[in-house]
Amino acid sequence: MSEKIAGLKKKFIEIYGGEEADLRVFASPGRVNLIGEHIDYCGGYVFPAAITLDSTVIARKRTDRTIRLAATDLPDRVAASLDHLEDGKSLKWGNYQLGVADELQKAGYKLTGVDMLFHDTVPLGSGLSSSAAIQLATAITLVTLGNEEHKISIPIDNVQLAVISQRAEHNFIGVKCGIMDQFASAMGRKDQAMLLDCGTLNYKYTPLKLDGYRIVLANTKKKRGLGESKYNERVSETSEGLAILKQFLPEKVHLCDVTIEEFEKYKEKIIDPIIRKRVEHVVYENARVLKSFDALQSNDLKTFAVLLKEAHASIRDLYEVTGFELDTMVEEALKVEGCIGARMTGAGFGGCTVNIVKEANVEDFIKIVGEKYSQKTGLTPEFYVCDIGEGSREII
Ligand code: GLA
């Protein structure tokens, strides 16, 4: 047993009492999205990978229908009945977990009471899907223990857990997110990135070999503020764009079914310049994801890096979800020797950038970008040299 897990088990016993022998351990990771931003809810392709920062849960089954929640980094304690989960919507912490329990039950899963201790290493609000990590760690715990209690031997389907967790985010939290974060957390594989078609949920893995280069995540530490309402605003702007184009292309189900040629042919029909910009980002970004996948498969890091830069410009100028901090972080990164590509990752409005940096330059990169960024923004950033890890699982 690792030292970390031993410490967490001890902490669990301090909080809830009982014996270590009854404890189970589950985990689910955050993710980095390499490219394909704000197009998952348009049925587009995305290219994420699970990271090794995660949400780890120490859990023990209860014999009643109570869920108790605690976290290592928060004073909050939550107790809720599986029969009255709706009450959990108003919680500041615990709402993600109870939302998942609620949607699992609505989907027909038989759950059982459980005590849970969360230990989260994905920084909150960093654009690395700390909430999807918590959701999927909750889902895998509840379903595993519920199945055992009710003697259900059907194998657990992680894709389904991702879909149900996304539903919880829509219905319990009120963010109309796409499927990317939950899917990447549930289905991540060590050292592999996944190309996911969010329209069909078809996916394939590819080894993330960046010969001599590392992925460095740079956290702007900018708080997201109104990010959630802006997020939903973008979702509805893209639906509006689709509705307009459907008058000419009635067979299109998702905005990402529209090709670049079709967009160029009909773009003047989108009168509102804001909607037209949003659609332009979506259509071109979708094409960039496929090009990036091909580039990485053929070890063409140069092309990949160019696509990353184009993607940032597009999300900044056409989709308008970056802001001074993210733009400064990318600008400063690209000035540093050894950094060949940089862009924001995740929802935007703050959070992290993803940078491809020559291994030998990583240390200098962190130092130089950190200093320049602090000078310009007054914020102290954080950097994570990123390893690609496993998806949702029990740790035995
Ligand atoms: C958030 C959402 C995802 C996706 C990204 C932007 O992380 O949860 O579904 O839309 O933003 O690509």
Fraction in beta strands: 15-25%
State the share of residues found in helices, binned by percent: 40-55%
Order of helices and strands: HEEEEEHEHHHEEEHHHHHEEHEE
**Regions with little confidence, pLDDT below 50 for 5+ residues:** none
User: For this structure, what is the CATH class of the domain at 3-206?
Assistant: Alpha Beta
What strand line-up does the widest sheet have?
5-4-6-3-1-13
**Number of strand segments:** 13
Integer average pLDDT: 96
Tally of alpha and pi helices:
11
Distance between the termini: 9 Å
| CATH-derived architecture of the domain at 3-206 | 2-Layer Sandwich
Reported for the largest beta sheet, the result is: 6 strands, mixed
The structural class is: alpha+beta
Listed once per kind, the bound small molecules are: alpha-D-galactopyranose
According to CATH, what is the topology of the domain at 3-206? Answer: Ribosomal Protein S5, domain 2
User: Roughly how many Å is the radius of gyration?
Assistant: 21 Å
The dominant shape is globular
